[in-house]
Design a protein that fits this description.
Length: about 475
Amino acid sequence: MAFRISTKTALGRLPYASRGQWARTTIRSATTAAQTAKAAEFEGAATSPLFDAKDVIAKEASYMVATYSRPNIMFERGEGSYLWDTDQKKYLDFTAGIAVNSLGHADKGVTGVIAEQAQKLIHVCNLYHNPWTGELSRLIIDTTRASGAMVDASKVFICNSGSEANEAAIKFARKVGKTSGNPDKTQFVSFHNSFHGRTMGSLSATPNTKYQKPFGPMVPGFKYGNLNDVAAIDELVDENVCGVIVEPIQGEGGIHAATEEFLVALKKRCEDVGAVLIYDEIQCGLGRTGELWAHSILPKEAHPDIMTTAKALGNGVPVGATIVTEKVAEKIVIGDHGTTFGGNPLATRVAHHVFSRLSSTEMLREVQRKGDIFKNQLEKMKAKYPGLISEIRGRGLIIGVQLTKEPGNIVTECRDKGLLILTAGTNTLRIVPPLVITDEQINQGLDILEGVLAHAAKDGQNEQKAVGN
C-alpha cells in the first residue's frame, strides 16, 4: 500500500526536536513508498494516491501568494517525457516545463551529476573561484563559435534565470551606451509580442499591457516596434538607442520567427548608431530548433553582440547565462554587476553536463528529424480541419499551431486525456516537448491532440448549425 501523508497529524503538539524526527521519518517513509509505487506502476499494477492532492492544494493556498492559475492536479514524479500525478495518472508532456526539461524528467545523467556534486560542494559565492563556472563558460564560448553562431562570442556572465540573464544584458548595453560619449544614449528597443521576463527591466522590455499595467510606470527609456518591419528600423533605432533586444523566434508571443532580412537590417542599423544587439534565446535556443542556437542559420552579418540563455541550460536546475562579445566585455569592470547564487558549482556542473549533451551533433540532428514528424502530421490535421487550424509555425521542436478559436477547452480536454500542452500568443497551441521524446510518444500525443481537435471541430459545426437555425 502506498504511503499516505495524513493532513490530520498533530504536528503542532510535538516538541521541536520530535517534529524534526517526525519529518525525517516521514520523508524516508514517503521516499520508500514512492519508489515502491513507481516500481509497481511500471509492472502494470494499480497504485493508490500518496495523498489527497485537492485537500493539500486547498490547505496550502492560504500560505501562498496567488500569482498562478493552475488546474487542480499535483505532479509528484516524472521520467523522460512522462509525468505522474498524485493519483498515479500518467501524462505525456508536450510542455517540458515551458521548454526547460529538454533532456526529459529525472534524466539519470542529470540526477547523477546533481547527487555527486551536492555531496562535494553546492555554494561558495563569487568571492572565490570554483572548478565549474569557468569550465561552463569555456564550453559555451568554444561550442558556440564552432557551431557558426555568434562568431565574436567572448565572455559569459552566469546567473540564475532567464530574467536575470536579460537584466544583465540590459545593464551591459546601458554601460556601453554610457561610455559612448553621448550622455543621452540610454534608450532601448524591443518588439511587440515579445517576452523577456518579469523583473522591472526585463518587464519594461516586454510590451504586454497584461503584464506591465499593474506595475507601471515602467523603467523609462523603452520603446517598441513591430517584428519584421524592416522599413521602420532606421527611425526606431536612432542615435540615442543603446540596446535592441529581440527573440529570433518569439515563444510566449505565439512562435513567430524574425526573418533573416529583418535581423540583418537590425544588426546593420545597430552598428551604424553604436547600439548593442541582444538576442534573447532563452526559449528558442540551446538545441530546440535543431541548431545549437536559433540564429545559427543566419549569416554573421546578423549575429548579436549579446545573447541570453537559461531554461534548458539546467534541465530544471536554476541557471542562466549572458554571452557577450569582446566589445561589450571590455566595458564591464569589477563591481559593475554580480549575483550571490549565480555560477554556484552545483548549477554550473549540471549546466556543463546538459550543454554538452544538447549541443551534440546527434542530438541536434534528431531534433530536426522529430520536428519534421510533428510538422508533417500537424499539416495533415490542418488540411483535415481547415476551419479550426489556420497555420503551423516553428522550427525543430518549438512549434505553434494557430487556431481560429480560443484554445482553453482544447488544452483542458488534452490534459484530461493525458496530454499536457501549452498556449502562446493569440489562440496558439505551443508544442515544446523534451528533445528526447521518442517517435512513438510523438505519435501518441498527436493522436490525442487530433481526437480533441476532431471533437472541437464537430462542436464548431454544431454551433454554426444552431446559429443558422
